[in-house]
Structures are given as C-alpha cells and as structure tokens.
Amino acid sequence: MTEKDDWRLLNDVEYLQDKYLNPTDGEEIVQHAPGLNVCIFCREKVQDSPHQRWFVPEDLNCCICENCFDDFREAFRWKKLDGWDIEWMEP
Ligand SMILES: [Zn+2]
Q: 55 alpha carbon to ligand 1 midpoint, in Å?
C-alpha cells in the first residue's frame, strides 16, 4: 500500500479515482497527444519511444508512467483496458 503522504499525490489527481486506463507508449503519446509530456504523478518525461510504457485515462487529460501505475493502481482502483480503442484527438 502506498503512503498517504507520498509527494507524488500533491498534484491534483483526485479525479483519477476509479478511472479506466489504456496502456500505450511514449511514441504514441508524442504522435497523438503532444500536449501530454510528463507523468501527472512524478513528472517523468514522455520520450518518443515505443519501449516506454504509459497509461492514459479515456479522457486523455493526463498520462501516467508505468511506475506510478504500478504504485497507485490499487489505491485508485484503476481498471486496465486493452489499449486498442484509444480515441486520440488529432491535434
Ligand atoms: Zn510517474
């Protein structure tokens, strides 16, 4: 269980409670959602790489790195989608 006073929770992340998240990668985010450039929790930078795993909520308001996904998935009760139906909003 994650500490309640984890510094990463200082950001405004309440709305992510119970969200459905799609797995994706850095390359996809850079291509389709260039407005998302850091992890909302830890500020890890999105890199243009298919080997960097990310998770995005259906509303694409933010992105979450793999570490933070693993750390917070239980606390936030995230449900993982299969990643095939992300509706990217073209810039
Ligand atoms: Zn992170």
A: 10
Tell me the one-letter amino acid at 48.
D
Sheet strand arrangement including 79-80: 64-65, 53-57, 20-25, 79-80
pTM of this prediction?
Answer: 0.88
Ligand 1 centre distance from Cα of residue 90 (Å): 24
Write down the pLDDT at residue 4.
Answer: 66
Write out the H or E segment, with its range, that includes residue 29. helix 26-32
Q: Is 52 left (phi over 0), alpha (psi -120 to 50) or beta?
A: beta
